[in-house]
């Protein structure tokens, strides 16, 4: 995989699709590796160059001391665009990745469009993660083994029946998370970045087309955040996925991928 180094931190990234086509940059959520975009990358690869960096602290990228900031991770993403010689990119981010995407759009005029999934602009008006959910996603039982720990921490991000509906997929996700997710140190440093993020009074300056997607049953970042983004982004369209959890783009991947492809086709 290619890498780029910025301020002594090396960021590893994957490239899918055709480098001669328009570029889509995919940015993942807190603690998650680039595996979470495997379905969307496959859906876009025929018509786009798709870049999937591992955030600092994650996967094959370096794990510098924290805390991190969203601005630092946006600068890392910009370094990936620099490394590929990208002049314009459609940027798609989920959860923390959506925060990085907002920050990148505010600081880099190469962002041609934004697709924001299950994310928030931060600030006092944002709907926070409920305390009981925050405790669940950061503290597994002490006697859990590595696989049980991942399944436990992920429970609030999926719908109640997901583990039973797609047991083979869940096992594969656990495998991917064991090898590709953030280290405990990286996850803690990323969490500090999310806690400090606030673009709520700045995103009104963005002129790029934006698509906001959110599950109505998101327990991690409540759906009210999608409504807040819609209010403050000047050119946003919003689609809500009824009953969708935080990882609705995994559980409803075909429908989500089709919606993103349609949006990108309209703004390319």
Report on this model:
InterPro entries: AB_hydrolase, AB_hydrolase_1, AB_hydrolase_fold. Residues 22-251 form the AB hydrolase-1 domain. It holds the Pfam family Abhydrolase_1. This protein has 268 residues and is of the alpha/beta class. It has one domain (3-266): Alpha/Beta hydrolase fold, catalytic domain (Rossmann fold). 41% of the residues lie in helices and 18% in strands. It has eleven helices and eight strands. The chain has helices at residues 38-44, 70-84, 96-107, 131-138, 146-154, 162-165, 167-180, 184-196, 224-232, 248-251, 253-267, and strands at 3-6, 9-17, 23-27, 49-53, 89-94, 111-117, 210-215, 236-241. Strands 1-2-4-3-5-6-7-8 form an eight-stranded mixed β-sheet, sandwiched between helices. Helix 9 (224-232) links the parallel strand 7 (210-215) and strand 8. Helix 1 crosses helix 11 (253-267), helix 2 packs across helix 3 and helix 5 (146-154) packs across helix 7 (167-180). The longest helix has 15 residues, at 70-84. The protein is globular and about 50 Å long. 45% of the residues are buried. The mean pLDDT is 96.
Task: Summarize the SSE layout with pairings.
Layout: E1 3-6, E2 9-17, E3 23-27, H1 38-44, E4 49-53, H2 70-84, E5 89-94, H3 96-107, E6 111-117, H4 131-138, H5 146-154, H6 162-165, H7 167-180, H8 184-196, E7 210-215, H9 224-232, E8 236-241, H10 248-251, H11 253-267
Parallel strand pairs: 3-4, 3-5, 5-6, 6-7, 7-8
Antiparallel strand pairs: 1-2, 2-4
Q: Give the H and E element order.
A: EEEHEHEHEHHHHHEHEHH
Count of alpha and pi helical runs: 11
Structural class: alpha/beta
* Main β sheet profile: 8 strands, mixed
Helicity level: 40-55%
The CATH class name reads Alpha Beta
Dominant shape:
globular
pLDDT < 50 stretches: none
Domains, number: 1
Strands ordered across the widest β-sheet: 1-2-4-3-5-6-7-8
